[in-house]
Specification:
Strand content: over 45%
Oligomer: single chain
Structural class: alpha+beta
Largest sheet: 8 strands, antiparallel, barrel
Distance between the termini: 32 Å
Strand order of the largest sheet: 1-2-3-4-5-6-7-8
Radius of gyration: 17 Å
Helix content: 10-25%
Number of strands: 8
């Protein structure tokens, strides 16, 4: 029963779409984004910046936090041992190149843990942040 519940929760979390707010470096809102998690290491992204729609796929890798966890909690700690065994909520780093129908592109980088994300997108002329 527990296994069925965990599978159900995984399908609920994965495949979900999460909303993000786009802001300039000085905090002015300039649009919205949607991040969709296909699995824990990939998904798609749709971004609406000032009426221009960008689409793309993203992929992620686990960020190695072992030295920070060992320093903070100690090598003998349960938290550190769980991290080494693959248990826990890992920080991931993701990248994507988004394209608009008019040919414009944005390069986006973000980090997420679970479904909380924070990142930046850049074009040749500007950059802005997004927060999920």
């Amino acid at each position: 029963m527990r296994k069925i519940l965990m599978i159900g929760i995984s399908f609920f979390i994965l495949g979900c779409t999460h909303q993000a707010t786009l802001k300039t470096a000085d905090g002015q809102p300039i649009g919205k984004a949607e991040l969709t998690f296909s699995d824990n290491n990939s998904g798609s992204m749709m971004l609406n910046k000032n009426g221009i729609i960008y689409y793309g796929q993203w992929t992620a890798k686990k960020v190695d936090e072992s030295s920070q966890i060992a320093k903070h909690y100690g090598i003998g700690s349960k938290k550190y041992q769980n991290y080494l065994q693959g248990k826990g909520d890992y920080l991931k780093s993701a990248q994507s190149t988004l394209k608009a129908s008019n040919g414009d592109t944005l390069d986006c980088d973000f980090k997420y843990r679970g479904t909380s994300a924070h990142g930046w997108c850049r074009s040749e002329t500007e950059s802005f942040e997004f927060i999920v």
